[in-house]
Amino acid sequence: MEHFLGRDWEITPAGGVTGKAFFARHGGKELFLKRNSSPFLAMLSAEGIVPKLVWTKRLENGDVISAQHWMNGRELAPDEMESGRVARLMGKIHSSNPLLSMLKRLGKKPFLPSMMLHEIHSRVDVLYTHPDIAAAVRFLETQLPSVPETQFVVCHGDVNHHNWLLSDEDELFLIDWDGAMIADPAMDIGTLLFGYVEREKWSDWLYEYGIELTPSFYRRMKWYAAAQMLLWIEWNREKSRFHDMNRIIAALHRLMIDDKNLFGNGETKHDAFKK
User: Fold this and answer.
1) 79 catalytic, yes or no?
2) Among 76, 179, 222, 250, which residue has the fewest nearby CB atoms (within 10 Å)?
3) Which of 8, 132, 158, 244 does the annotation list as catalytic?
4) Which fold has domain 75-261?
5) Which helix (H) or strand (E) holds 54?
6) Euclidean distance between CA atoms 83 and 274, whole angstroms
């Protein structure tokens, strides 16, 4: 990348599993560079969801490099996920017609719950002998007819606290949109509420988001939360991250017995999503 930024720029890898992100620094200027990011990034920048996009450049080999302002700041702590700011930004994302229209123009189709269950069947079969995993798969199968396929919005898909950036200027962003999809908003919200928010605060959090807590929405959240846990369990198994795998299995067990306190009486938060 040095040949189009200039040799005076210091470019270092920014980490991550894809190896496509870099930091660039020169003369007090700092940029966050990404190779072959989606055109969706420009719309996210325009909506104020991610740090401002500065430019995009196409290289001779066809790669596209995007540059964003590097924001000094920090990721949110797990207990900060309960805040109204997180709820309002999540609500803004899910209600954004420009974001939804852009994903549709990019060829994205709704990710149906039946598709998610098919992915679980194809990936998690090695672990079916574990009783909690087998019970969760049966739950998804039996409850699938009660999960509607009528409400679809732009979903981030991985809203754990590591992907929320609070800048030194007190601006809140949701970053790392490589897994963006069109799906049921309960997918994102289930991760947030079951993973981070005390049960007695759910109604207030959802009020800030823009909806009321109902039994039907609870069931949708639980379905997607269980499905995502199963996929994360398998991902950690594939990476030989057995401590994290067992931690999520324990959280999955708690989730499966969660109905006994449907709308909560001081129930403690889960920690399945605090990766």
Assistant:
1) no
2) 179
3) 158
4) Aminoglycoside 3'-phosphotransferase; Chain: A, domain 2 (3.90.1200)
5) strand 53-58
6) 16
